[in-house]
Amino acid sequence: MSKDFHGVIPALLSPFRVDGRVDTDAIIALVDFLIDKGVHGLYPCGTTGEGMLLNSTERKEVAEAVVDAANGRVPVMVHVGSFSTTETVELAQHARSIGADAIGVVAPYFYKFDATGLLTHYRRVAEAVPDLPLYIYNLPANSRNDISPALAKEIASYCPSVAGVKDSSKDVARLQDYISVLGEGYRVIVGSDVLFLPALAVGGVGVISAVANVFPELMVRLYKAYTDEDLETARRLQYQVNQVRDILKQGPYLARFKAAVSLRGISFGGIKAPLRGLEYQEVDELRKELAELSLL
Hints:
Number of strands: 7
Strand content: 5-15%
Shape: globular
Distance between the termini: 41 Å
Order of helices and strands: EHHEHEHEHHEHEHEHHHH
Helix content: 40-55%
């Protein structure tokens, strides 16, 4: 039923034109760039993709552009999670209609929900698209609602379409618990670049990566080194990824990631308010920092 999500899956950035509209040309350019560099899948409309700042029309437009641009070359998991069950179902049905290979569903956010409410939410989404693989997306720091391994197992027991978990708890022990509790047949993907190698070592199958938008080669080489059992190279690359991630995470949220994509030759601008982009001097500073690591 489910396509094989593994390896390096960029958490796609979402580009916008000067007038605020989605820049589909930039999406196509980024998707082609990433696939050419060897990524194994794509994940649009998540946290890195400003999904929670986009209205449903914009989210659908981004998802359609990514699925069309990928054109079956790599699988696409569209993030459809929202603060309401109604909108999540609507986005999930849209993802199925455009040919997405799976959906990611973060816990509904802002309000605090109990386990019964969260289970009901996921059941309704799964029942609306029973033939579409669903990945539970755990991001407790932002959603305020933690999907524990026990709750994930309960959700999976009621929802046959659950294929795995994207865990962004930044906790390797929690990641291991998902793997242990869910057992065979489920795929656990880490949502933190700095934990890519540790996640692989304990049984995770890949990473949904922000850094891979900018430097997919680093992430792909790390994954290949691990699968080739070249742990010395894998460790070296993980440390380099950590350095890059630290540079890109500085400043206003997501702004350095977008500027860095442009520095790599893809015209990629715009950001949703109240997020802000970089000033010219901030871009120059970023360029110098990346050049010092011999990345530009």
